[in-house]
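Two quick folds needed for the group meeting slides. Do the first one here.
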Amino acid sequence: MVRRKKKAQISVYLDTEIMTMLADYAARRDQSQSMIAEAAIASFLSPDADERREAAIAKRIDQVDRRLMRLERDLGISVETMAVFIRFWLSSTPALPEPAAQAARAKAAERYDAFVTALGRRLAQGPKLRQEISEDIDPAENS
């Protein structure tokens, strides 16, 4: 016959929100609320709880660091792409004579406004160009 340790009983007062969360969690796990509360208290009082929390925080910081590095790389690529395009455009587009330049400036202002409107619409609803490019490029073609 297996003997079970007798457990001590305590009364705990919980906020309604926490009690609801406990009940929902216990139901999802198909465990008793008492068992969930006991495990939570044991984890909180465990001598290595601080080390586990620190490890979890370090893992999250590493993930954020990797994401930031990717963002920095992507931003660098974007800036270089824009710089190369501008340099190419400036070196290959001849200057206009003054009467035509005034008309071109007026048309450019009109086109710029249309560009900003289209960009705003695009950013608001997506998809992003980089997603479309990756979807358009067939990995089988590149191998």
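Then this one, please, same format:
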Amino acid sequence: MKRRTPPDSPGLFADLPAGPDFELERLAVREGYSGIAGTDEAGRGPLAGPVVAAAVILDPDNIPSGLNDSKKLTATQREALFDTILACATVSIASSCSRHIDSRDIRKASLDAMRRAVAGLALPAGFVLTDGRDVPEGLSCRGKAVVKGDARSFSIAAASIVAKVTRDRMMARAAGVFPHYGFEAHAGYGTEKHRMAIALHGPCRLHRMSFRPFRVDGDEETELDAEIAL
């Protein structure tokens, strides 16, 4: 297994700031980089649907107010910030479908979506801040893994919002094609309602067959299972 990129901070987060700021981006600029992009994903844990990644280069002179980790915002706040971010920043979005996830594993599929999101930016990134412990392979510039990055970096927080809103909208549309599962309510996560629908109707092509409860071959825990257990 490929070794993970060492994170920029230890595994204890008692000293995390109250919210993200622009200091990591300013540090990269002071080191001579320009076009600082943040990237994050949404949808690692669900039983169905794609994992969606976004990359965002903010305008330092026009940073939207209220940026934060998407999980700490309401749906209404995320929707409003989504429109604001798209209006004032350079944004790119990419996704990996359930078949891609099943064939590669969720970690690799997530990182590949992040790489493609960065590659799709209209303004080429000169440096990338990545949420988590890994820097995607194949970037055209240097990258830095930032543990809990969506709580520390405005650019990563913006990417987390764009990825989350995009994925929620995709799953709401998927509900119109596969109405039995309630995707519009739980976005593919393993809620009781979702699991009951799977038991009644079986999986559809959006389900990740390498995930439990579909994977029944008795293999050892996947990397996702280990991530969730932490």
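Slide caption for protein two: The CA atoms of residues 38 and 129 lie 5 Å apart.
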